[in-house]
Amino acid sequence: MDDTATKKILVIDDEVYIRDSVIGFLEDFGFEVIDAENGKIGLERFEKDKPDLVLCDLRMPEMDGLEVLAKVRQQSSKIPIIIVSGAGNISDTVEALRLGAWDYIIKPIQDMNVLYHAVSKAFERAEFILEKNQYQKDLEKANVELKISLETLERTQNQLVQSEKMAALGGLVAGVAHEINTPVGVGVTAASFLDTKTTELKKTYSSGELKKSDLESYFKTVEEVSHSILINMERAAELISSFKQVAVDQSSENRRRFNLKEYINEILLSLRPRYKNTSHKIQVNCEENIELNSFPGAFSQILNNMIMNSLIHGFKGLENGIIQLDIMRQKDAVIQFVYKDNGNGMTPEQKERIFDPFYTTMRGKGGTGLGMSIVFNIVTQTLKGSIDCESSLNKGVCFTMKFPEFWEES
Ligand SMILES: Nc1ncnc2c1ncn2[C@@H]1O[C@H](COP(=O)(O)OP(=O)(O)O)[C@@H](O)[C@H]1O
Ligand SMILES: [Mg+2]
Fold it and tell me: How far is 284 from 278, CA to CA, in rounded Å?
């Protein structure tokens, strides 16, 4: 046992002979020893000198050992207490152990090594308990810190997922705004052309020089131009209405009834600005009469992410990419939704990690790696389905999603 010199032992015994021999023996081993001749003084010394261990007799005047023990235990549950008592006091010794004494030695002490052994064992045990408590405290602290960082991480992840969803919506808005600009621009040009023509006609009429041919030419212009205005305004209205629904659905998590095929066409219409200037094509093959009571926003998030991934990753460096959607009802009211592209495909590692949050091969180039993890969560949690990915390098990708056609709201 090391650093004995720093350990302080309190010996409480009414027999001076015992005290002296114990003190002498322990001091030889380098312990600092203090003593008391009865329980009352012993307790006072305990409070004043704060020993590291107490050796205590049971039968003593003033205050007996059991009472000392109980009082010491009230102050400290950890300090080692060893009972030194006569062979006749077995029942008291048992009571002492029950009250929290760590060990006992029978008086008269025949072999001082027994005492040394009991004292060293008690100090080792105290050391062990101290270490264990420290370890437990460290562990608890680490646990609390871990919990806090986990919470922060979860919060950050949620925020990121949310902002990725919003970014998808932002992209949709920009694309659609751009798309609407064209028909509205054509409409404005056509209307102002009509305005000019009408002013000219009025002038000619006022001057009394209006010919029949002027009027006929004006009618022809009005007919053509108003037709063009009508077509362009209808196109804008169509874009706005499908976009409005898709945007509202995408930003909310509302459940409602919709026809899957019609809705997919609306989503594709609002995504069209993203690919209409490329030579890539989207083909849809969807069963007509699938009426879902589900979350339309989920479908628009899924398609938005998958189509953008095909355009960005799959068709990188390629022309004439084809995206193919096959949606059909299987038996047992399961909807199977297959999404394929014929692009660059993925390596086994990419395929393995595609649904991991933050996994991206475009880090620093606009990729967040959240798209497919959002898709995974939407399919498995919102739609209560499953998703599987098949892909190899230069062989395109194929996602097979399956989800129930009906389910009860929980
Ligand atoms: N259609 C695809 N073709 C090839 N690789 C793809 C396709 N879709 C996804 N990936 C791969 O999966 C990764 C993760 O996709 P995603 O979670 O949407 O993150 P991000 O698009 O931000 O990179 C992409 O970085 C890409 O390597
Ligand atoms: Mg993506």
Answer: 18
* Domain annotation for the chain: domains and CATH numbers: 4-110 (3.40.50.2300), 252-404 (3.30.565.10)
Contact 341, 322 (CB under 8 A): yes
Which among 119, 114, 80, 116 has a CA at the least distance from the CA of 96? 80
Quick one: which atom of ligand 1 is closest to the CA of 343?
A: 3
Q: What is the pTM of this model?
A: 0.58
Please tell me the residue having the least CA distance from ligand 1 atom 2. Answer: 314
Q: Ligand 2 centre from 300 Cα, in Å?
A: 14
Query: Contact, 345 vs 395, CB < 8 A?
Result: yes
> Looking at the DSSP assignment, which residues form a beta bridge with residue 85?
106
Looking at 139-143, 362-366, 389-393, which range is the least confident one?
Answer: 362-366
| Ligand 2: centre distance to CA 375 (Å) | 10
Residue 82 pLDDT level (bands cut at 50, 70, 90): very high
Q: Give 34 or 249, the one with higher predicted confidence.
A: 34
